[in-house]
Design a protein that fits this description.
This protein has 445 residues and is of the alpha/beta class. Helix content is 38%, strand content 23%. It is globular, with a radius of gyration of 21 Å. Bound molecules: guanine and zinc ion.
């Protein structure tokens, strides 16, 4: 790393919520991002920055967009090798594909190897931070935290808790040395939470696979460590909801199970929330809990259409996520494109600004990490990506067409990336100022 690095390109980042403010982003066509010791010093027009930092090492990404790295708010680390399995909806998909594949993570060397593959796949797709589920094996969370520490990457993760309704080989009582998933989670919190950029997320998988006792213990663990996060699944699929209803006949609805267990807080991230009642939405908003919308997964597993407009009307903080491997891609660009389609199917035209907000600044704000990531505020970590808006041949044709019409503006570039872009468009990924991924076509910058 040089004392000061200056990255020249089209600078773009969100500064506010597009739902609240008319001016919500910064765009500088010929701009520069100035980075020192892993942090952002400032950004501005290239000429001014170059005059101010004449000694800086120049990285010329002219013609490309430099923006904050994307944040994936719900992803399953051990599912990276079951992306794209055929023909099942959620519960059968879990039983047929997911649980058997998670069994292999019993081997800690395999887990370490897969963690390296996992973060490198994130980097290749322009994702610089994530909220991840490990498996029930405690060492899988350690694999993630270790590899993230090596890259100085922000990793929010936790070992999955399951003590019922799962195969024997994945139950806490059988897998954990202490036979107690809560005890193991406590140990992991003490070892890893807030060590470097790691944060622990207490992770009861969903109400189906935890006994009421385990859910309540997970809630107590959060009380013991209130600055940990909580992640779980909520109302993803109709058969799942029927199963939950039969397992918890006394609960008034799905959310109530988590509320009674002390698992609903402003640090809780609920995956999916496709089928919430108005009352559940109201209670989620009151608790300031976070909803992770996973549109690619909801389409791939045939789960349903989450209605973002209803979430917005209820004032819920909604963020975007892949849900690999329910989601059959690591690409947050593809998630944004799918979100656009899923919302348009429900007559809501999701704007480019709102889409990007829910993968960058909005997510950072929801997690309380906006000083660290999600925009280019001075002092935050230099987690950023370089995107080539014409790296896919059909996008190059579209770019030429729009240039002719003098409409090749930042909004059209960004929307094209969401609609038709993928990892080919990600030219470079930087974490805390270090280049962790370079596309082959972009080696010498
Ligand atoms: N619900 C419980 N576990 C899972 C999982 O691994 N993936 C998805 N999409 N939903 C779940
Ligand atoms: Zn999930």
């Amino acid at each position: 790393m040089n004392p000061v690095d200056l990255y020249r390109g089209e600078i773009f980042y969100l500064t506010d919520s597009p739902l609240d403010k008319e001016t919500f982003y910064t765009y500088i066509a010929d701009g520069a991002l100035v980075v020192s010791e892993g942090h952002i010093l400032e950004s501005g027009p290239y000429s001014g920055m170059w005059q101010k930092y004449p000694q800086a090492f120049l990285h010329d990404y002219s013609g490309m967009i430099i923006m904050p790295g994307m944040i994936d708010a719900h992803i399953h680390f051990p599912q990276l090798n079951i992306v794209g399995m055929y023909g099942k909806k959620l519960l059968d998909w879990l039983n047929n594909y997911t649980f058997p594949s998670e069994k292999d993570f019993n081997d800690s060397a395999y887990s370490d190897y897969m963690a390296e593959q996992f973060v490198n796949t994130l980097f290749r797709n322009g994702t610089t931070a994530c909220v991840a589920y490990a498996t029930v094996h405690p060492h899988t969370a350690e694999s993630l935290f270790r590899v993230a520490s090596r890259y100085n990457m922000a990793m929010l993760a936790g070992k999955v808790l399951m003590d019922t309704n799962a195969p024997d080989y994945l139950l806490d009582t059988n897998v954990c040395k202490s036979k107690d998933g809560i005890e193991e989670s406590r140990r992991l919190i003490c070892k890893w939470h807030k060590r470097g950029r790691n944060r622990y997320a207490i992770t009861p998988r969903f109400a189906v696979t935890s006994t009421p006792h385990q859910l309540a213990e997970a809630g107590k663990l959060h009380q013991e460590f209130p600055d940990t996060f909580i992640q779980t699944h909520l109302s993803e699929n109709r058969s799942e909801i029927d199963t939950v209803r039969s397992l918890f006949p006394k609960s008034k609805d799905y959310l109530d199970i988590y509320e009674r267990s002390g698992l609903v807080s402003e640090r809780t991230i609920f995956g999916h929330c496709v089928y919430l009642s108005d009352d559940e939405r109201k209670r989620i908003a009151e608790a300031k809990a976070i909803v992770a919308h996973c549109p690619v997964s909801n389409s791939f597993l045939g789960s349903g259409l989450m209605n973002l407009e209803q979430m917005n009307r209820a004032n819920i903080q909604t963020v975007f996520a892949t849900d690999v491997a329910g989601g059959n891609t690591f690409s947050m660009l593809k998630v944004m494109g799918e979100a656009y389609k899923v919302q348009l199917l429900q007559n809501y035209s999701l704007s480019v600004g709102e889409t990007l907000y829910r993968a960058t600044l909005g997510t950072a704000l929801s997690l309380g990490l906006e000083k660290e990531m999600g925009s280019f505020v001075p002092g935050s970590f230099a987690d950023f990506i370089v995107i080539a808006p014409e790296a896919v041949p059909e996008l190059a044709l579209r770019g030429a067409y729009l240039s002719e019409k003098e409409e090749w503006n930042i909004e059209n570039k960004l929307f094209g990336l969401m609609a038709s872009g993928d990892d080919r468009c990600i030219q470079a990924t930087y974490i805390a100022g270090n280049k962790v991924y370079t596309n082959n076509s972009c080696l010498n910058r």
